[in-house]
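Hey, resending since the last one bounced:
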Amino acid sequence: MDKKDIRSYTYSELQEEMAGLGEKAFRAKQIYEWLHVKLVDRFDEMTNLSKSLRQRLEEEYEIRKVSMLERQISNLDPTEKFLFELRDGNVVESVLMKYNYGNSVCISSQVGCRMGCRFCASTIGGLVRNLNTSEMLGQIYQIQKISGERVSNIVVMGTGEPLDNYENFVRFIHMVSDEHGLHISQRNITASTCGIVPNMRKLAEEGLQITLALSLHGSDQEKRKRLMPVANRYDLSKVLEACDYYFRKTGRRVTFEYSLVQGVNDSPEDAKELAAMLKNRNCHMNLIPVNPIREREFQKPSRKNAIEFKNKLEHDGINVTIRRERGSDIDGACGQLRRRHITSKKEN
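The C-alpha cells again:
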C-alpha cells in the first residue's frame, strides 16, 4: 500500500494527523515548517523531532520527490528552465524568470494535457495524469533550493490545464499562500485556463484573490475552434460570461491571453473584432507571438505586425501589452523541453 503523501496535507489536516498519532499539537507546526518553509526532502532532516516520531513518519508517510533532471540557463536574459522527474518516472517542466520586482516561477499542473491546442507542444501525446498538490508545490520548492532565491510570483501556465485538475489546483493555491508555509500572496498568483466554464464559475466562488487568465486565441467562436478543440464544448459567449462572473465575484481583473499566429489570427479584422469583444470589460490583453514548434506549422508574425496589431487594439481603448519573449534559446515554448526528453528517450 502506498504511503501517505504528507506534503499534500494542509496545515489543519496535518494537525489532525498528528493528533491521531497521539502527538502534541506543536508537532504539526514543526513538521509543516520543515516541509514548507525549510523545504526538506527527508524525515531524518527534521532534527527537532524525536527519533521514534521520525521513524513512524518514515513508516507511514512519504515526502514525494520532485528531482531535477535538467537545467537550462538562458544567455539572453535571466531565465532558467527546469525538467523535473516525478516518483513514477514522468517528467514536467518549470521556468524561473527573474525580474526587478522579484522572481517568478511558471509551473505545470498536469503531466501532458488533453486540451489539444494546435500550436502547443504540451498537448502532443495527450494527458498522462494530474499532478498531486505536493508535485505542484515541489516544483517551486526545488527551484528555490536550486537557485537559493525566494519566489515571489507564481504563474500556473506550464504544461496542463489547472482547471482540469481542479481539486489539487485549489488545494495548491491555499497551501502556497498559507501563512505557515511560503506565504506567497494570492494576488501574486496567476492561473491560465482554456475556458472550462463550470470550473471557472466554481473558482469564482472559492474566495481566492488570484488572477485568472483566459487563453482566448481567437476573435470569434469559429476562429477559436480552429486553434482550440475545447471551444467545441464551450461556446465563446459562455466563456466570456464566466470571465465576467469571475470579475464580479472577486473584483480581480481577468487577463486575456492571445497567441498571435501569422496568417491565422493576426489580421486587422481580428484586432477590430477583439476590440469590440473586450471594450466594455475591465480586463487586460496579453499578446503572445507564438513560439514555433517542430511538430506544428504555425509561425509567429513579424515584430512590426505584432506592434501594429497592438496599436489597433490600443486605439480602440483596450489595455494591451506584448509579452516580452524570454528564454528563446532554451526550449522556451511550453512543453518543448519535456517533448525533447521523451523523444530522445524513445530513440535510445
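The first helix runs from residue 11 to 20.

Sorry for the duplicate.
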